[in-house]
Write a structure and sequence with these properties.
27 helices, five-stranded mixed beta sheet, 885 residues, binds zinc ion, eight-stranded mixed beta sheet, 41% helix, disordered N terminus
């Protein structure tokens, strides 16, 4: 095992916060000049490309020394202030030493960097459809150093002068507009881009390949003096027919106008390009002037309105970063939340207010916040303002706390201080810190001024503690309601009271047996108040009723339902036009399943009974998927046959009852296909659906597009009902990049032990049978298929995986290692005897505990993954044990 002390200083990739602070004290960067030569990119056996980097910078003291970060392949020369340094002496595998600085310095580095297959750095992808090659970069938090030598820390902002060399038929793009183009020999061109305004290294970007281009323009914004902006969309040639450029441009324009109205600061980055790129590790990245998106947002199968809404939310999230994050940047990764929480909040708000798409806040309440509640319940949870000691910790912190909990808390802040103070604080923040960096304290100072409220107390309670609050409504004999809050910080073990501004609603049963809201009232709990009586709210005590705490989802808290409310909401549908109360209820029920306080069977019963009444497409889809998950992972084995029958019947019924060809019908079909993985009893129905008879009375109007087809094929493969030849035929019929991944998944699901063992080993090794490195997407596709049939002995595999963890972590990038470990970690196990309290003695759990005990020195980021998977396993064991009757 490799530990820090054994790493030579120049081989140390873990830049620490302290090192960054020292470097920022010493250095000021004037500009970077970077030239990437991608003229060999088409030669796939060429692993590297030449890079020339010039950095002009000043040092506070002459004679001082500093270093660059660089994870390149080779360095040919380092010339500092005209003097060639000894490469053998100053270059390591992760750093380049710069000794004996003057006060004004220039360093020129000639080097080669590696084409990436992990989605980090400069990723190279070959399209299986037409053989074309596409490249794009992804740098956050610290992968710019995979492409060019730099000082990889967000507070050393600089101007970037970028140029790229590549085939003259290609699209070459970066943050700035193209300002020059020069033809070189052999069909190669050199393109120069306008110098950027001051930005951080993680925000620089490179795009190259024969991308198709769509063009439009936004007309500008009078009040802020924002001029018109050129808009472009890039996508692979083989996706051109699927690119719905008009609605994407429309969303972009709606967003630009809305954000200008909101922030009153003109868009600072000149143009607005949006590129949809293959094998992307995340949803999107906010590079100034050139946002990159996961190309699954170009819909090649029929997308539901909920998928459109989610895409729009991502688009708006990135757009809000043009101000939050790009214009004003966090000083270090501790304050990552300052941009991500705001972007998540504002991304949702912009969709709700600037577009026609429905369900943004509902999805936020039900989906985004579920991620937060889950993450906040892990032993690894942390305060929103995290303690990020080095870059490795930073890369593990793009999590449910930083994004979703942070955004939920920002939403609460918005209601707590009021819209006017909130918006004014944002505007001041942008004006005061434009092109610079800021920290939590800077933000709080401004918010305190605009709101007149004590923000440091607010921040202490919300941002510097961990774990969710639980809110409960108690109703006395007279029908008066009291809201009580309870929270223990899992890190400090101390009680935490938080200020909450929220709303409580009463729902009563109408003549149609539906729960309708009859009264609601606001209540504020201050930071020192454990409970508060809700004035002006009276609950009838002799009727079927539900009391919903956190109606409108204004605060971040888990809700504990009183017995009468639980009985009502699992029996009767809630009719609520804004449906955030429906979201709150379903989110609560799902949390209860996870925490073993609601049997999976009861949840599935509620879903089969009530899901047809859930109008919101996204919530409907999610609840169905949760029912499948509850069945496969949280229900005791002995109940699964019965529950499968019940859920299958409900889903098949939904195909008939819901409007033919509707989004909700499609969601039911997808859920049924997932239910079919390893479920022999529904094989006939899977085969019937795959045949795709739209005129059938059993699935009227249901089109079997590629997505649904491959879901069904994977399920049938997991049952051994179809063979390799069939899968190959289906792939040959429509051989796209996406279908190739789906084929991988289906192939891995086939219950052929020898093949599955081999594929398992390929994921474990990170290479295919020919020894080629598996890309990020291929790796995950295979691992997903292996889990679909659960055919391998998971206990043996777990042992092998645990023994290999350190090797995997040290031999792969953070992202690839995380994908490998999560992909192979077996989550489903059968409980041991002795009830819920005996499950922490389950052999699988104790095996993991042994690893944790023996690997105290393993990187914190690796331990974090193992601890979270242990929690996932234990939750499922406890729920199954508790659900046995
Ligand atoms: Zn973001």
């Amino acid at each position: 095992m490799r530990v820090m002390s054994e790493v030579a200083p120049l081989d140390n990739a873990r830049l620490t916060r302290d090192e960054a602070a020292i470097r920022a004290e010493l250095i000021d960067i004037t500009n970077y000049e970077i030239e990437l030569d991608l003229s060999n990119a088409l030669e796939l056996d060429e692993p590297t490309y030449p890079v020339t980097t010039t950095i002009n910078f000043t040092a506070a003291t002459s004679g001082a020394e500093t270093f660059l970060n660089y994870l390149g392949s080779s360095v040919e020369s380092v010339v500092l202030n005209g003097r060639a340094l000894d490469v053998a002496e100053v270059v390591g595998t992760a750093r380049i030493a710069l000794p004996d600085l003057a006060t004004t310095n220039q360093v020129v580095i000639r080097s080669h960097s590696a084409y990436s297959h992990s989605g980090e750095g400069l990723h190279r992808f070959r399209d299986p459809v037409d053989g074309q090659v596409y490249l794009y970069s992804q740098f956050e938090p610290a992968d710019a150093r995979r492409v060019y030598p730099n000082m990889e820390q967000p507070d050393l902002k600089a101007e970037f002068r970028i140029s790229m060399i590549g085939p003259d038929t290609w699209t070459l793009a970066s943050n700035g507009i193209e300002t020059g183009r020069q033809s070189l020999d052999h069909g190669i061109v050199r393109v120069e881009f306008a110098p950027t305004k001051p930005i951080s290294t993680y925000l620089t970007t490179f795009l190259a390949g024969p991308y198709a281009i769509f063009e439009d323009a936004w007309s500008g914004h009078g009040p802020t003096g924002a001029e018109s902006i050129d808009l472009r969309i890039f996508a692979r040639q083989s996706l051109v027919d699927h690119v719905d450029a008009a609605p994407l441009f429309e969303l972009t324009k709606q967003g630009l106008t809305w954000f200008h109205d909101q922030f009153q600061v003109a868009y600072p980055w000149g143009k607005y390009d949006q590129a949809f790129v293959p094998e992307y590790n995340l949803g999107a990245m906010e590079n100034p002037g050139l946002v990159t998106f996961n190309e699954t947002y170009i819909f090649t199968s029929r997308a539901t309105i909920s998928q459109h809404m989610q895409r729009a939310t991502t688009l708006m999230h990135e757009m809000s970063h043009m101000w939050f994050g790009n214009l004003v940047t966090m000083k270090w990764w501790d304050d990552l939340w300052l941009k991500e929480s705001f972007a998540d909040f504002y991304g949702t708000k912009a969709v709700a207010e600037a577009t026609e798409l429905p369900g943004a806040w509902q999805s936020f309440a039900h989906q985004r916040k579920a991620w937060a509640y889950r993450q906040d319940s892990y032993p690894t949870t942390h305060p929103i303002v995290a303690d990020i000691v080095d870059l490795e910790a930073a890369s593990q912190n793009f999590d449910g706390i930083t994004y979703a909990k942070g955004a939920a808390v920002i939403k609460q802040l918005f209601h707590y201080v009021g819209e006017e103070a909130f918006v004014q604080a944002c505007q001041t923040y942008f004006n005061q810190y434009a092109y610079g960096t800021a920290q939590l304290a800077d933000f709080l100072t401004i918010m305190e001024k605009t709101s007149g409220l004590a923000m440091r107390e607010w921040a202490a309670a919300w941002l510097q503690t961990s774990g969710p609050t639980t809110l409960r409504a108690s109703i006395d004999e007279a029908g008066a309601v009291t809201v009580t809050q309870h929270a223990t910080d899992p890190i400090t073990d101390e009680e935490v009271l938080r200020p909450h501004a929220l709303c409580v609603a009463v729902f009563l049963l109408n003549d149609d047996d539906q729960l309708v809201s009859t009264a609601e009232a606001d209540v504020v709990l201050s930071a020192d108040q454990a409970s508060a009586k809700v004035a002006d709210l009276q609950v009838p005590t002799d009727m079927t009723r539900a009391v919903i705490v956190n109606q409108h989802d204004q605060t971040y808290a888990q809700v504990e339902l009183d017995a009468a409310t639980l009985a009502a909401v699992t029996t009767y549908p809630i009719m609520d036009p804004d449906s955030t109360s429906v979201a709150t209820v379903w989110s609560t029920l799902w949390t209860m399943v996870r925490q073993a306080s609601l049997p999976a069977a009861d949840f599935i019963g509620a879903v089969t009974n009530l899901s047809p009444s859930i109008e919101d497409v996204s919530m409907h889809a999610r609840v169905l998927d949760q029912a499948v998950e509850a069945l496969k992972e949280y229900a005791p084995t002995g109940q699964r046959t019965r529950l499968t029958k019940q859920l299958a019947a409900a889903l098949l019924d939904a195909l008939v009852v819901l409007e033919p060809g509707s989004d909700r019908q499609r969601s039911a079909a997808r859920a049924f296909a997932r239910l079919g993985q390893g479920t022999e009893s529904v094989a006939a129905e899977l085969t019937f659906l795959l045949a795709g008879d739209e005129t059938s009375a059993l699935s009227p109007g249901l089109e079997i597009d590629d997505e649904l087809k491959w879901l069904l094929l994977t399920s049938l493969a997991s049952l051994g009902r179809i063979d390799v030849e069939r899968l190959q035929r289906e792939l040959a019929a429509s051989h796209t990049a996406t279908n190739e991944l789906r084929y991988r998944t289906a192939l891995a699901a086939l219950p052929d032990r020898a093949r599955q063992a081999q594929l398992w080993q390929e994921v474990f090794d990170g290479t295919d049978s020919a020894g080629n490195a598996l890309s990020n997407a291929a790796l995950t596709a295979t691992a997903t298929g292996l889990k679909a049939s659960d055919n391998l002995d998971s206990t043996d595999r777990l042992q092998v995986l645990l023994e290999g963890l350190t090797m995997i972590w040290n031999s792969r990038s953070n992202n690839l290692a995380t994908r490998t470990i999560n992909g192979l970690f077996p989550i489903r196990h059968t409980p041991v005897k002795g009830g819920p309290q005996a499950q922490d003695r389950h052999p699988v759990v104790t095996t993991i505990d042994t690893w944790l005990t023996q690997h105290q020195d393993a990187p914190a980021a690796l331990r974090r993954i193992v601890i979270e998977r242990r929690a996932d396993i234990l939750d499922r064991l406890i729920a199954q044990a508790a659900g046995r009757k």
